[in-house]
Amino acid sequence: MPLVMLNHYMETIELATSFGRMLRIWRTERRLSQADLANAIETPPRHISFLETGRSNPSRDMVARVAAALDVPLRDRNALLRAAGFADVYRDHSLSDVEMRQLRQAVAYMIRAHNPYPSFVIDRRWNILDANENGKRMMSLVSGSIPFEPPGMTANMLDAVFSSGGFRSYISNWERFARHFIQRLHRESASDEELACVLSRLHDQSDLPNDWWKFDVEHVDAPMLPVEMSIGGARMAFFTVVAGIALPTSVLAQDIKVETMFPANPETERLVRDHEFFSERPTG
């Protein structure tokens, strides 16, 4: 075989194998068999097997069909397209772009409306892009040496949670909360190499037991796990709701999440509402 043809052949196999690996990861994450996925997109199961092993190359239409069936996020759909040898379809933006003005207004309204309870705007790597007033106050109280004053100075929620000088020392149910959070991160980083690197960094910098960091594919926790906090002698409990943008057409619009904290019991609601608990740094 001529060298040029051989190089082209090897590049094609490499692309297909890369696509196949990513397809297999997403199919496994969605807990679908090859037959399940094949049935969803009306193709023979053998074709799914050939796509995953690299014996068949996907068309652009096939990439779109499997991505839709697996509910793959837009950023990762671009990655699947590139792995299959096609150009990106979904545009990426910065939050400061003119096109993102409506998105900025929407998330600003959401976090302001959530006062007096803390609310944060985060990206897919858990960088805090913005927060409402009590969100900023809460970060200032419990984040220790982690600087935070968005939009000019941001912090990373993962660093704030797992750092010994951050939320960790204030969380009463730390072991259960941390294990639950780590399992969530494993699943989010399954197809996101940059987030996987963040998870690896946290593992290397943390003094948490190694067995805490094992990915448990069967991990199931309570449908709602409140974080129990003890600040300045007061005990509070919050549960969080994460909201996204409906029908996003931009990578950034899908990446942005608004994480809002709600009181999990009447005592927490009273503390936050009646005493402006986060307005001053507690002692003790």
UniProtKB/TrEMBL annotation:
Pfam families: HTH_31, MLTR_LBD
Domain HTH cro/C1-type: 23-77
Family annotation (CDD domains): HTH_XRE
InterPro entries linked: Cro/C1-type_HTH, Lambda_DNA-bd_dom_sf, MLTR_LBD
GO molecular function: DNA binding
PANTHER family recorded: BLL4672 PROTEIN-RELATED (PTHR35010), BLL5781 PROTEIN (PTHR35010:SF4)
Full protein name: Transcriptional regulator
Source species: Litoreibacter roseus
